[in-house]
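Before the break, one more example. Copy the sequence into your notebook; we will annotate it together after we see the structure.
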Amino acid sequence: MTECGATSDRPAGEQPIPVCFRHANRETWVSCTRCERPICPDCMNAAAVGFQCPECVREGRRGQRSAVTAFGAAVSIGNDGLLTRVLIGINVAVWLLTVAVALLRGEVSGDQLGQLVLYGGLTDLVQWGAALPAVTGGSGLMGGIASGELWRLATAMFLHYGIIHLALNMYALWILGRHCESLLGRWRFLTLYLLSGLGGTIAEFVFRSPNTYAVGASGCIFGLMAALFFFFRKLNIDVRPIVVLLGLNLVLGLFLENISLVAHVAGMVTGGALGAILAYAPRGQRQSIVQLAGVCAVALILLTFTAVRITQYDLWPSQRLSTLWITAEDNLHQCVFALKSCHSSQRHRVNITREETIQPNPIPMFNCGPAGMGNAPLER
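Here is what the structure looks like once it is written out:
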């Protein structure tokens, strides 16, 4: 019988040749510098001095802390830009859904399809998900965020007004998102993206007048640009390109039509605040706790602005609950009706639970595309 680590087919008195402790048929004169067991070339792992066996390498990694960025994210997480690609895919899928629903419901004809694809249109799906502060008329408050349609604060940042608008925003997200994701990791990056977008849509609700729509991811894009300013400052990288890009976008937003400067500025302020919190939180064991507390503070401020603005529409809590229930019930009935009439060429606007049918007047659409990323004025 042969024991692992030595051979027995040598003449008596001659020193046996060591064999690899993992491969008994391979002779070797190299041993692990840590456990001193013989190892063959396939088992050698280069170390600071000599070689180590696979078991010693795994044991050493267990007690070694993973390398992290200056912002608390693991170095290996976010380098592939996976979340950036997922967000781009979601935005593209939502835009395709918008066009498909408009075609299936007969909202556009064949000769109008090109116009819809290039420059967008105020389709039913866009009207359902856009940032609409309120719909007012002779009967008072008849729709919008103020009436309880709070989903608009989130859905508006994933809707786009035509493929040009979509392409420019997604190009900006591809360039900026990968940098932020590699520095922050996926969860911090996702938080920055969503809260920046919410800052833009909440600003539309707070500062815009009723009966105006706004869609686009530019609040998210401006938030990423503002956050990168603080990230570059933290890493001692030249911030002048970011300053020029932000300034160009803001200036062009003053002169181009159908550009929501309110959403741009609000997204920039929200993203800048989050970027400063993530960048300058003290490093160490408390870094994640401080970052989380700062993010919660920003989210609370946004929630406060929303609540205060809702109360300015003179809806008491009981009325708001009733309005929320009516709105949810109306939307359910409208969705069922839309499925039944999907193949009908005639457009219908049905309201089952209310006595009067709401026929909204043409409402201006504000495009939330970042002008500085090559966004031309998108006119209706």
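The first helix runs from residue 54 to 62. Residues 1-8, 315-322, 343-380 have pLDDT under 50 and may be disordered. Try to locate both features in your own notes.
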